Amino acid sequence: MSTRPGAETQAQTTERLTRRGLRLAKFTVAYNVVEGVVAIAAGIAAGLVSVIGFGIDSGIESISAVLVGLRLSARLRHGEADERKELITLRLVAITFFLLAGYVTVEGVRSLVVGATPESSPVAIGLLVASLVVMPLLAEAKRRVGVALADPLILADAAETRICVLLSVSTLVGLVVFALTGAGWVDAVAGFVIAAFAIHEGREAWEGELAHDHGHDEHGHDEHEHDGDQRKAAVDG
Fold first, then answer.
1. Bigger pLDDT: 118 or 35?
2. Average pLDDT score over residue span 117-144
3. What contacts 22, CB < 8 A, 6 or more positions away?
4. Helix (H) or strand (E) run with residue 8 in it
5. Rounded CA gap, 85 and 76, in Å?
6. Gyration radius of the chain's alpha carbons
7. Which residue among 73, 141, 175, 236 has the highest number of C-beta atoms inside a 10 angstrom radius?
8. Is the pLDDT at 231 greater than 80, yes or no?
9. In whole angstroms, what is the distance from residue 89 CA to residue 146 CA?
10. Whole-angstrom Cα distance, residue 63 to residue 179?
């Protein structure tokens, strides 16, 4: 008699966390659509390859979040995960990373060969600063849910949001250095850094290693080895 309520509580906790993950996915889509539109518009206006690449990355994050949201919705409807479909989702995310890397590399090389000189963009700098505030919080929220559920897909999505933080730092540094020095080649180099991040994380997504890498806490312990109560405490406490 005493184990049944406990089982029901665990099921309710799983559903609550899954719904939280779904809300985070929806927020990711909404935020990144706005971020992507503003970044691409600002990048085109100023001729900034790295900012355009950052905007395209926002679109990729939106696609990833949509796919994750669809999978979480399916779990809530059916009560279980379809591992085959979720592996396909990770592979699709990996492909978009490779496409991003290709685009940014080609555009960076073109700007260096042509000798195009970009303009400074206060709008882009403001957008990147906002991303540095929002994205770390969003990534950590996703990570907590993913760890609590021991969920590879949510953890991979959290890792992708972390990439956005890295890209924000890289792009912002490039823009600030350009604004201070007027060195146009800095933007292309920042674009190449984005391409390197994209290739690295795309490869790990394809191989299913993103979730494995981020399933460890900052002290190097595997959080997947904790029991259900400890996973719950990681989120609620």
1. 35
2. 90
3. 69, 72, 73, 76
4. helix 3-46
5. 15
6. 19
7. 175
8. no
9. 16
10. 32
Asked if 138 and 23 count as a contact pair (C-beta separation under 8 A), the reply is no
d(CA 53, CA 170): 12
Higher pLDDT, 69 or 115: 69
pLDDT tens for residues 96-107?
788 888 888 887
d(CA 126, CA 35): 11
| φ, ψ of residue 48 in degrees (nearest 5) | -100, 105
Residue 150: pLDDT above 90?
no
Amino acid present at 195: A
pTM reported for the whole predicted model: 0.73
Distance CA 6, CA 57 (A): 43
Identify residue 89 by its one-letter amino acid code: T
Q: For residue range 186-230, what is the model confidence (pLDDT) as tens digits?
A: 878 888 888 888 888 788 778 766 555 544 444 444 444 444 444
CA distances from 125 to 11, 159, 177, 185 (A): 44, 23, 12, 18
- Whole-angstrom distance, CA of residue 37 vs CA of residue 39: 6
Q: How far apart are CA 141 and CA 108, in angstroms?
A: 34
